[in-house]
Design brief:
The protein is of the alpha/beta class. It is 43% helix and 23% strand. The protein has 10 helices and 7 strands. α1 packs parallel to α4 and α6 packs antiparallel against α10. Bound molecules: S-adenosylmethionine.
């Protein structure tokens, strides 16, 4: 199991190192679709002045930036992530902010000498193969009175932006998702998310559901931009498909998007997001 996890982690790190600049441009730095959740997460976890905050899997620093913007009296914010490219972007994106640091480390293996008041983690818990280890790490890094705030995408049918393509991709492209890859919607229901966080020893666990809308344009825009965004290993698998199979694949995706397509051809996807808050004790 350990070997499978470490291979997956290396693959995932490589993917994030490639994708981070595109991710930042397309998603993280624009307050659209699922990223409307960043503000909600910060409100729900209630960060106070003088708080010491840790943002786990901080990516390109979008949560960190909003935390600072909301409360300029914060004692310190630390962001951690395994992608060195994401960390570099996060540093640049937050260069005007003081009392802030970004560190290249793993959510399952970090340790700090200081204890934090708040730990946040947006759109990353499902990437950690040993989510319990990461959650226990977060718990150990909190003060007794500390709190966590975690956002995840909802279950796949409630996030058709992903499932419209992924469900067909796994049908047409063998090994599209390599063995050992954790299921990305494994915490996509209130009960699974709550249970995982309770298991790690947190109390007062509350999960709130939000539905955001996301317009990826017309079908051709959605398809083209999705393919442009994905990392090289996936693109290679897609490019290896025979022309006729690729056409079939694209048609099957189009069919899935029809229920979200308006009369003018624009797609409006609903996007379910779950935001959890909990206390250390
Ligand atoms: C979808 S992005 C979310 C980034 C950021 N929290 C945001 O909301 O924009 C997922 C991030 O998780 C990071 N990640 C994946 N596995 C990780 C791990 N084991 N430890 C730390 N970071 C990890 C990736 O490098 C990536 O930056």
């Amino acid at each position: 199991m350990k070997v499978i996890h470490s291979k997956y982690k290396q693959r995932n790190m490589k993917i994030w190192n490639e994708v981070a600049p595109r991710y930042h441009k397309k998603w993280a730095s624009v307050n659209k679709g699922p990223f409307q959740s960043t503000k909600k997460l910060i409100e729900l976890v209630k960060i106070n002045k003088n708080n010491l905050v840790l943002d786990v899997a901080c990516g390109t620093g979008v949560v960190t930036k909003q935390i600072q913007k909301k409360n300029s009296n914060l004692e310190y914010v630390v962001g951690i992530d395994t992608s060195i490219t994401a960390i570099k972007i996060a540093k640049k994106y937050n260069e005007k902010n003081k009392n802030l640091d970004f560190i290249n480390t793993d959510a399952e293996n970090f340790a700090f000498s200081k204890k934090f008041d708040v730990v946040t983690c947006q759109y990353a818990l499902f990437f950690f193969p040993n989510a319990q280890k990461a959650l226990k790490n977060m718990k150990n890094s909190l003060k007794k009175s500390g709190k966590i705030g975690i956002s995840v995408h909802g279950s796949k049918y409630n996030v058709p932006f992903f499932s419209s393509i992924l469900d067909s991709a796994v049908k047409y492209i063998p090994n599209y998702v390599p063995p050992g890859t954790p299921n990305l919607d494994r915490f996509g229901t209130k009960s699974t998310l709550k249970a995982e966080v309770r298991k790690a020893g947190f109390s007062n666990v509350v999960v709130k559901e939000f539905i955001f809308n996301y317009n990826p344009g017309k079908f051709e825009d959605y398809w083209k931009n999705y393919i442009k965004y994905i990392a090289t290993p996936l693109k290679e698998k897609l490019n290896a498909l025979e022309y006729s199979k690729c056409k079939e694949f694209k048609n099957s995706v189009k069919e899935k998007t029809l229920q979200y397509t308006k009369k003018n051809g624009e797609i409006i996807f609903p996007w379910q997001v779950l935001i959890l808050t909990a206390k250390n004790n």
